[in-house]
């Protein structure tokens, strides 16, 4: 059953721009590419290109930020070096990773390495020594990465998979921290099986030192603790409960944990109120406001 309007009601410039913004907003930080847009929107990207002259122009006119949709452009070596210098000036204590410079330039890490070769060479040109041990990942980041891979493959990830997309934390980090992959996985499983971890709020963003003495009233967190996300994902077998799509079987599927009774209306971070949806079904829900019941799922179905 289709639950989503497949066409726009009108094709004014404003309606097209609005559709761009809607899809961009629903991607939860994923990059807005032409392909993603066309698969999720109620209009094809070519319509926007025709209307506004080019995809890039459409993004500009709709005010979509470079972070969400980097414009295709040539980045020179000088620009990269300048970006590194600026970054170091602003973050003197941080190590300069290819990732953060790519982000700053609105491009991908792979683009930088393809174009400029070894990162260490580029850094030494600027007079920076690459951090000898690489970046230090927190336990939380390591666990998040395991969960991302577990979701991607629909099963316990293998050590070798740490080197490949969508992994963002390399194998060395796990070996350094836990001594080996097996031990790292046990730590992860222990982490997600702790009954207490299900209700523990994720760590709040670090406050500047001077703010630490002020009392901060923290509302019920919208973000769902790792252990609970793992529980919901494995309960739903790493598939969208509405349409059955899974990253393991269907490429390009992103799964989200959805609040059945919306968090904005007081829906709780509890197992009964959470379910796994793909971004497409999740978007359909958002588009029809929160009362939509994707593919017949919803309160009644659980
Ligand atoms: Zn779905």
Q: Enumerate the spans where pLDDT stays under 50 for 5 or more consecutive residues.
A: 200-219, 287-302
- Secondary-structure element sequence? HHHHHHHHHHHHEEH
**Tally of helical runs:** 13
Largest beta sheet: strand ordering: 1-2
Count the beta strands: 2
Q: Could you report the average pLDDT, rounded to the nearest whole number?
A: 79
Structural class: mainly alpha
Describe the structure.
The protein is mainly alpha-helical. It has four domains: 13-62; 77-126; 139-193, no CATH class; 221-301, no CATH class. Helix content is 43%, strand content 3%. The chain has helices at 13-26, 34-40, 45-52, 55-62, 77-90, 98-104, 109-116, 119-126, 139-153, 171-178, 181-193, 226-235, 279-287; strands at residues 255-259, 274-278. The chain has a two-stranded antiparallel ribbon. The chain is flat. The protein starts with 12 loop residues before the first helix and ends in a 15-residue tail after the last helix. The relative contact order is 0.09. Residues 200-219 and 287-302 have low confidence and may be disordered. Zinc ion binds next to strand 2 and helix 13. Zinc ion is lined by residues 240, 242-243, 245, 277-278, 280-281.
Key descriptive features of the protein:
302 residues, 13 helices, binds zinc ion, mainly alpha
SSE blueprint:
Blueprint: H1 13-26, H2 34-40, H3 45-52, H4 55-62, H5 77-90, H6 98-104, H7 109-116, H8 119-126, H9 139-153, H10 171-178, H11 181-193, H12 226-235, E1 255-259, E2 274-278, H13 279-287
Antiparallel strand pairs: 1-2
Helix pairs in contact: 1-4, 3-4, 6-7, 9-12, 10-11
Zinc ion (ZN) binds near residues 240, 245 and 278.
